[in-house]
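A favour, since you know our structure tokens better than I do. Would you make up a two-line entry for one protein for me to read? Write everything out right here, beneath this request.
=====
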Amino acid sequence: MTIHIVQPALPSYRIAFFARLQRELSKRNDELRVYASPRDQLNVESVAPTGFKASIDSTMSIHLGGRALWQTCLNVSLTRGDVLVINGNPRLLSNYPLWLRAKSLGIPVVWWGHGWSAGSHGSRSKIRQRIMRLADAVILYTDKERDAYVHLGFAPSRTFALNNGVDIDSIDAAVGAWNSGRLRTFRSTQGLDTHAYWCIFLGRLSLKSRIDLLIESLPAIRPDVGLIALGDGPLVEEAKARVRALGICSRVVWVGAEYEENAVAPWMLSASALVYPGTVGLSLIHGFAYGLPGVVHADPFEQMPEYAAFENHGNGIAFQSQSAESLALAVNELFDDNASRVTMAENARALVHRTFNVNDMARRFVQAIDTLRLPGAAR
């Protein structure tokens, strides 16, 4: 059996998951093949596959201002007995003729995507749900989404969740490479011995991230807490200018973008909390993997699916969305109670070692595929 997965792009953060999935499928003598465009509609670039097969030669065509998408020359060789997994973006119109071809061959079709995401809880989600019901199985990003979809009437036996997460093995290896002495030297070299504590922002400095809100909150945060900005993006110069205007340059360290885990690790290990004031997704899980409690806003309708991993006062503290004052209060609360912060850190790390990691994702994906082997599974 070949599992064909069609994606808009093959981003670097998916490589570990697909490699792990191929290892799990190999135990069943099955093969994974991924199909993607060199660059998707959001300008996410594909990278070369490692540990699995992929075809990255289908150009993404954008129409009607992004309301309609088409992957040209999508050459998916379907054979009876295979499984087709399509990306859960209903605007990706090239999926539909591929879906029809799979059905004509008796090949089950799996819809893999968000149940909900920031700003898509209204009519658009209802349209997506109608299409999803036609699939032989649905794979969602989190258990919380699955529970909600089963409540909406989706069949429990055909509705699955991965708990979208990070490559915990690579993160653990990177952490292990930094003993206390080496980390002290790094902190001193990078000027991180100027503050007792550091919170870290991890991600693109964009409107979505609300880095502006974090900067506005900084003067009201305890003076012994600094900010590490790990990322780059279109708002970086504007953010730096605002920091200068507020006179808080000594409290902010601008790292820029780092993509290798070994380069990310010492910055994460030098921090005591992850703060993401905007629409958070995998950055939250990434922080949890390092044992960093999260400070995120409390509006679930303006968060990505990975927000399901957050538990207020369990592995982080929530603040009122769009409020710099509330954000500062949340950060101060976290650092005012060291014992609670340590407990939250332990809870965050334990969660990502249990689930929200690529190993558990691969196991769950295979379990979903296994249900399609049963007689009569394809509709």
Summary: The radius of gyration is 22 Å.
